[in-house]
Amino acid sequence: MAGLSSAAGVIGPALQGLNVLSSIVQTGDDFSSQRRAEEQSLKELQQRQQEDMRAAQEDAALEREKIALESEAAERERRDALKRATARQRARFGSSGIDTNTSSSAQAVLLGLFDESEEERQEREALDDLRNRALDSDLAQRSRLNVLQQTQLKERNKLNNVSSANSLTRGLISGASSAFNLFG
Predict the structure, then answer these.
(1) Taking residues 5-12, what's their average pLDDT?
(2) CA torsion sign, 127 to 128 to 131 to 136?
């Protein structure tokens, strides 16, 4: 009978020790699955960001095409309007008996029409340039935001890992303490 009682005294603490080891292994498994989930979350974020960036770049390229087409149309319209204005002015001068080839006043008026037209072209080009720079700025801002989001997620994951490691360490210490108390 004394042998059974001493065997029971050893088996009980041994089972508790196995429970502690099982708990430690489970905590390690939980830590590993948490790590895999964090890596998967980061991959999904990167994929989503790449798709968003690709779509934004495509939209920007389309917008640049639109700006270029509008600019070409405006340039054709400007030239046509200049030709019409020049022809009208020459006709007025001709009906008044002023020769546009020899009259410096007539040439100055025509030159003024060309200068006004050139200023309109320069203003339109400046506006087109501003619109293109706004597109570039938007893409650059999206890129910076993507880097920031990735960095935040990585830092959050590091913090979670430290927290999990602390929990695992506390579990190990608690388990070791329990085992020492059982056998001590």
Answers:
(1) 58
(2) negative
